[in-house]
Amino acid sequence: MSDFTGKTVLITGAAGGIGTALAERFAAAGARLALVDIAAADDLAARLGADHRAFQLDLEDPVAIAETVAGIGTGMGIDVLINNAGLGVVFPAAKPDVALWDRTMRINLRAPWLMAVAALPFLKASGAGRIINLSSQAGVVAIDEHAAYGSSKAGLILLTKILALEWAPFGITTNAIAPTVVETPMALVGWSGEKGVKARQEIPVGRFARPAEIAAAAAYLASEDAGIINGETLMADGGFTIR
Ligand SMILES: NC(=O)c1ccc[n+]([C@@H]2O[C@H](COP(=O)([O-])OP(=O)(O)OC[C@H]3O[C@@H](n4cnc5c(N)ncnc54)[C@H](O)[C@@H]3O)[C@@H](O)[C@H]2O)c1
Q1: Is the beta carbon of 209 within 6 A of some atom in ligand 1?
Q2: Which of 217, 39, 54 has its CA nearest to residue 133?
Q3: Backbone dihedral angles phi then psi of residue 6, each to the nearest 5 degrees
Q4: Burial classification of residue 74, based on how many CB atoms lie within 10 Å of its CB (0-12 exposed, 13-18 middle, 19 or more buried)
Q5: Does ligand 1 have an atom closer than 6 angstroms to the CB of 187?
Q6: From the CB of 81, is ligand 1 less than 6 Å away?
Q7: Which CATH superfamily is domain 8-236 in?
Q8: pTM exceeds cut of 0.90
């Protein structure tokens, strides 16, 4: 396991299913955590150790992003930024919900960019900054009713490449992870019953991903060992997109 002692890892959406697994993994590897979410993550921070801090932030608010990240960076530094928060709503493409489309884009695509911009001075100062964006298999292949979500996650893959290109000279690498369905409490509700059985059958490995497997992928991309990997999207999808 990589050692993140002395490093600060900022995780957005930390109160959620994958966010919690990310926090547990990086805390176990010695990192100091800045846990960011619109929901309270104080209990999680306290459970994982005295060094960690929780910050309540609405990622739809650009001014709040700039202020919160500046505060975190000044107080704790930022070595690794994990843009994990996301909104997973679906609707048929022929029945547009404009408000939901815009909200999806603000949270899933605009916020990772603004978080990265706000974290940039601190990632530069780190000397080996890392950005990891949580995309999805839905950003790579077409999935029913995923017009807004899939487009936001596809956009995030290209944003990953652009930051990777522009910011590599600062010693910063930027990569994405694109999971299949991950067995978080919320995902299991959405993919229950026959829908879930069918979805599992369509994944070559025959199962969904576990949150800890996504955290392990992030730990690798954040590690020194992954220093040459930049602009990549690591598929964590059991082979769903290989056909
Ligand atoms: N679970 C899956 O099946 C799956 C599959 C592929 C990709 N992903 C992606 O992984 C990431 C994490 O997913 P998850 O399953 O843990 O989701 P989740 O819903 O359990 O957690 C998401 C977190 O983001 C936070 N959040 C939402 N809107 C916010 C806002 N405006 N400001 C601040 N925080 C906000 C929520 O409060 C929540 O804690 C997301 O980007 C998601 O799209 C999930």
Answers
A1: no
A2: 217
A3: 85, 0
A4: exposed
A5: yes
A6: no
A7: NAD(P)-binding Rossmann-like Domain (3.40.50.720)
A8: yes
pLDDT in tens, the chain (243 residues): 689 999 999 999 999 999 999 999 999 999 999 999 999 999 999 999 999 999 999 999 999 999 999 999 999 999 999 999 999 999 999 998 999 999 999 999 999 999 999 999 999 999 999 999 999 999 999 999 999 999 999 999 999 999 999 999 999 999 999 999 999 988 898 899 999 999 999 999 999 999 999 999 999 999 999 999 999 999 999 999 999
Which of 108, 157, 182, 210 should be mutated for ligand 1, with most atoms under 8 A from CB?
182
Ligand 1, atom 9, lies closest to the CA of: 134
Query: Domain extents for the chain?
Result: 8-236
